[in-house]
Amino acid sequence: MFTHIKIALLFLAAYPLLSQSEETQQVKIGFSSPLTGAQAAAGRDNQGGLSMAISQLNSQHLVIGGKKIQFEAVMEDDQGDPRAGVAVAQKLVDMNVKAVIGPYNSGVTIPASRIYNNASIVMASVASNPKITLQGFRSVFRVAASDTQLGGKMALYAAKELKLTKVAIIDDRTAYGQGLALEFAKLAKANGMQILANEYTNDKATDFNAILTSIKAKKPQAIFYGGYSPQGGPMLRQMKQLGLNVMLLGGDGICAPEMGRLAGDAISDQVVCTQGGAMLDKLASGKSFADSYQKQYNRPAETYAASFYDGMMLVAAAMKAANSIEPSKYLPVLEKIQYKGVAGSYAFDANHDLQQSAVTIYRFKGGVPEAVSSY
Questions:
Q1: What is the C-alpha to C-alpha distance for residues 13 and 27, in angstroms, rounded to an integer?
Q2: What is the DSSP code (8-state) at residue 282?
């Protein structure tokens, strides 16, 4: 009898250790976007999308590799600056994150991608410069349209639908702005448009009068701007002040309500932009996401909230399919994944670009971009 009691006590003593082995495992997911500075609004938009995805996944009480999983976002501010982005990348690597959703800016993503790849950490970025996925880095994935698609489709729309023949181009000298402008110029020329001027500024500028005065003298029908809303808004105001009443075209960097807020009464339906993904309000999943985002944050989802949400969901789906949270195990699954998300369907080509990425054309109405058509 004593022996039986002793065995029972030994079992009870061991039981807490067994329970501890079944405790929830924290899985760190890195986030890199500008949370301060001129592009902070875009960063907060991205942050909201990732946070929604993680909250939803944690409510599912996932079990991966025999362990209960709790995702934890490590939110880092890369300031939209390459140096800060590299520091963020090293910090996230040192924290042993299992994936990184971001960065947002191409100029940050290009140098940071090498650090993530060297550490074999999966990076799912919306940054659009074609160079990002041409580096041959296996850990690097693009979960949105590239400049080739964004700039090229804007040029096609300008030529075929807007019937423009003479345009001027301005870029902000960032990897994003230059890449976007280059792709627009290629397709514009191929479709018979004349490029009257190629000007440039920077992503900290506030005064564009000299550039715009020079362009006005050349009488373009439109200006294509490769850059972001913090410069696009003031640029549009100065265009109005100079009497430069032409269309302003751009990519996803100006395709956000922030553009309308910064441009004030200068914003109109003469501002046309492209954004990767299908028209959210035409998809049941997209409308549901937008409604949930608005309810949770009391602000509308802007350019890439849905893509950051989908990026996290993609990674989690690959982890579940591989039954592992380790990048070396789930990366091969991610390469072959077929996933339907909020912003579109996801499947990757050999470079880890999306095999198909719809591009939506927007025109501003009432200060906010309104979808016109997928192109």
A1: 29
A2: G
User: From CA 110, how far away is CA 117, in angstroms rounded?
Assistant: 11
DSSP H or E segment with residue 67:
strand 67-77
- Residue-wise pLDDT for 192-226, tens only, equals 999 999 999 999 999 999 999 999 999 999 999 99
CB-CB contact of 45 with 301 (8 Å): yes
In CATH terms, are 25-145+281-343 and 148-276+361-374 the same topology?
A: yes
The third-level CATH classification (topology) of the domain covering 25-145+281-343 is Rossmann fold (3.40.50)
What is each CA distance from 193 to 160, 200, 269, 285, 360, in whole angstroms? 10, 20, 21, 38, 21
pTM for the model stands at 0.86
Distances (CA, A) of 138 to 111, 268, 339, 358: 15, 43, 19, 24
Annotate 332-375 with DSSP letters as a single string. Answer: HHHHT--EE-SS-EE-B-TTSSBS---EEEEEEETTEEEEEEE-
> How do residues 34-92 score in pLDDT, each as one tens digit?
999 999 999 999 999 999 999 999 999 999 999 999 999 999 999 999 999 999 999 99
- Neighbour tally for 299: CB within 10 Å: 14
| DSSP H or E stretch at residue 178 | helix 175-190
pLDDT band at 358 (very low <50, low <70, confident <90, very high): confident
Nearest to 319 by CA among 49, 125, 57: 57
Pair of tokens at residue 226: 């490769």
At the fourth CATH level, the homologous superfamily of domain 148-276+361-374 is Response regulator (3.40.50.2300)
CB 306 within 8 A of CB 297: no
